[in-house]
Amino acid sequence: KILHTLSTSQGNILDDESAIKVLQSSKVLSNDIEAKQKIMIKAQKEINITRMGYKPVAEHTTILFFCINSLAAIDPMYQYSLSWFIALFSRAIDKSEHSEEVAERIENLNNYFTYSLYLNICRSLFGKDKLLFSFLLAVRLLESKREVHDLELRFLLTGGVGLVKDMPANPASEWLSEKAWTQICRLSRFTAFQKGYNETKAKFDEELAKKKAEEKARQEAGDNDDEKAAAEENKKEEGEEEKKEKEDAKEPELKENQQRFLDMVVDDCEDECLIESLQMFSDDWKKVYDSPDPHKVAFPGRWEKDLSPFRRLMILRCIRPDKMVNACRDFVNGVMGEKYTQVPSLNLAECFDDSSPSSPLIFILSMGSDPWLSIAKYAADVEMSEKMESISLGQGQGPKARAMIEKAIKAGTWVILQNCHLLEKWMPTLELIC
Q1: Rounded-to-integer distance, Cα 170 and Cα 159, Å
Q2: Alpha-carbon dihedral angle through residues 75, 76, 80, 82, given to the nearest 10 degrees
Q3: Fewer Cβ atoms within 10 A, N terminus or C terminus of the chain?
């Protein structure tokens, strides 16, 4: 419109009242757009800051997803889709306790979703694998906090591999087997079971905390300089995502520092290593070995107070591997809480709440079991007894089942398909219908 006004204007444009009004309105519109752009940029920065505040939730849920994804290595039936996981997380966002404080909201959301995931996964696990899943959850979460190292977990699972050079003689051969002694010698190669671990860890933590404080001070000083430069020179401020990239770039340096700590050993100290402890306190260690509940007995010397719960498992794995199931249960209780070792009973009401019209409930049954009575009782409780139909699948029953499902979709009723294994070829069709 401005170009049209300029091209059609005749004579002095300053004498053209209509052209002046067009230019003035254009100026007002331009100022309005510029003001809205500033508001939008400010709002976008606030959104990014808020979004980055929930980064711990993203990290936590990522750990949980890959944790359940690894269950397929135990049994091929234990496979879970990303869409199901996202839907479960979306329900957790709505149902978890809300709070104005971001830190409290993050804690509530993580706790609620973790337990909700545990309940949902346990419904699909065999009884023998439920404690294993709880243990896997606890270990993965501790790994994310760097409280458990991959090599330590590998030792717990395998007992270590390889020959031990210059292995000392077994000081308790009357009750400690050579296999157990060899594993203890392998275990003693870990920094946490050597001399001076506590002194080294204290020095390293102090050094690392000092470096973090200095780096934080430099970042704050750099941020202030950037803000001043932006105000004076009207330059574009650095976005939160760029800052995040810089923080991520420092991650390898942090890992390098932690690896350096694993290689540090202090020889000049009063603490004994694990091998020396077995040699000096053989009778005390025998009490642990002879106890019916060795995982509840105090370890001799400094090992009772200095070891983390996971590293206690590593020692117990060498001395009394037959009690590892009970020890792992106590470990999960201490890390996650007792509710993660209590096998939840099947609750159809909760199962129904977690389902949707496009994700039906599937019962995988053992020989002789029949959930029909439980389903009928729940249908009566929710007043669906008169709106429920069932059909036993078999040869030629596919079209009938399809007609019942299409009718139920329109009427809002339930359809129960029994003996699905007798019509396995029809299952892909059922998936498309649902």
Answers
A1: 17
A2: 130
A3: N
Among residues 422, 423, 404, which one has the least CA distance to residue 414?
A: 404
pLDDT tens track for 179-229: 999 999 888 888 888 765 554 455 556 666 677 777 777 766 655 554 455
Give the residues across from 414 on adjacent strands: 388
Rounded to whole angstroms, the Cα distance separating 242 from 232 reads: 21
**CB-neighbour burial class of residue 121 (10 A; exposed 0-12, middle 13-18, buried 19+):** buried
- Give the Cα separation of 243 and 251 in Å (integer): 13
285, 300 in Cβ contact below 8 A? yes
Give pLDDT tens digits for 292-323.
Answer: 999 999 998 888 888 899 999 999 999 999 99
Q: Which of 64, 152, 146 is nearest to 110 (CA)?
A: 64
DSSP string of 332-349?
HHHHT-GGGTSPPPP-HH
- The per-residue DSSP string of 117-154 comes to HHHHHHTTS-HHHHHHHHHHHHHHHHHHTTSS-HHHHH
pTM summary value: 0.72
List beta partners, residue 388.
Answer: 414
Position 51: which residue type? R
What gap in Å lies between CA 24 and CA 18, rounded to an integer? 10
Strands (E), 361-413: 388-392
